[in-house]
Amino acid sequence: MKNLKLSMLILLSISIMSCSKDSDNNIEPGISQEILSKIESMGFDANPASIIVTKLGYIVEGDILIPKESLEKDYVQKQHVLNVINCATARNVRIKNELGDHVSGDRFGRALKLWNDVGGASTLNLVAVNKNPDIVVRLAENNEIGNAFGSTTFPVNGVPSPLIFLRPDSSYKGQTFNALQWSNIIAHEIGHALGILHTNMSGDETIHIPGTPDIDNQERDELSIMTDGMDTVVPFDVILNSTGPSLNDKRTIRLMFHENANRRLCN
Q1: CA 155 to CA 168: how far, in whole Å?
Q2: Do 13 and 86 meet the contact criterion of CB atoms below 8 Å apart?
Q3: For the chain, percent helix, then strand, then coil, each to nearest 5?
Q4: How much is the pLDDT for 155?
Q5: Model pTM greater than 0.90?
Q6: How is residue 9 annotated by DSSP?
Q7: How many whole angstroms separate alpha carbon 67 and alpha carbon 8?
Q8: 124 close to 163: Cβ distance less than 8 angstroms
Q9: Predicted confidence (pLDDT) per residue in 169-181, tens digit
Q10: Tens digit of pLDDT for each residue in 16-71?
Q11: E strand or H helix that includes residue 96
């Protein structure tokens, strides 16, 4: 029976997840040994050839962006604790569309609806607003997220990420994204903002969701909208062509925000 590692990450310092799938990454050859050691201490691959430098920090393992200021602190390390938005906020997550007339905003409402339609025992409710948002979705500027398609921070103290960035000139296999594909990318980033890591991430930094496939056992959810898109078995096309969260994605949301206080992960 499958078990998927749909997981939540918690860094003592704030970390940023950038979902980057371009092949023409800008490799930074001059990363200091001190920085490499700190990255390794966090449990990530510290091979300089695999690390990309952006305006905001260092992208490791293909799509996890660690802020530069975080690496300047002496206590950088991974904390193996759960960090999702609190239950009360989950019932009314206010999200503002600041994408202007860019195509990424054309089906913005669909991105929210994909998670709202999880249903069952889930209490999660995402609401589009024009003021007082919990999360703002906007276009990235001036290399804020490098060549990542999208980026966001993880929840802190039960509060969702305040910003989701999208790179306006993103393309995949030589093609720019249409409105439907952008809505899937936004939904993916919202998943991170709520506390979900990539489904194919494994190791001590993850929390296993019972009843879902386990990557450590070479099992994968081939329909998950939360895949990192770099897996040869589950490529980025899965996100772009998704019709919504997979059954395992939905199981995770229901466990995170279950209506029964004795069964949910949120506080």
Answers
A1: 24
A2: no
A3: 25, 20, 55
A4: 84
A5: no
A6: -
A7: 18
A8: no
A9: 999 999 999 999 9
A10: 344 554 434 443 457 888 888 888 776 667 888 878 788 878 877 666 667 777 67
A11: strand 93-98
DSSP letter string over 208-242? --TTS--GGGT---TT-TT--SB-SSSBTHHHHT-
DSSP 8-state symbol, 48: G
Looking at residue 147, its pLDDT comes to 83
Domains in the chain and their CATH numbers?
16-71 (no CATH), 87-256 (3.40.390.10)
User: Coil, helix or strand for 172?
Assistant: strand
Q: How many CB atoms lie within 10 A of CB 128?
A: 15
Residue 235: exposure state from Cβ atoms within 10 A (0-12, 13-18, ≥19)? middle
Neighbours of 33 (CB within 10 A): 9
- Which 3 state secondary structure label does DSSP give 120? coil
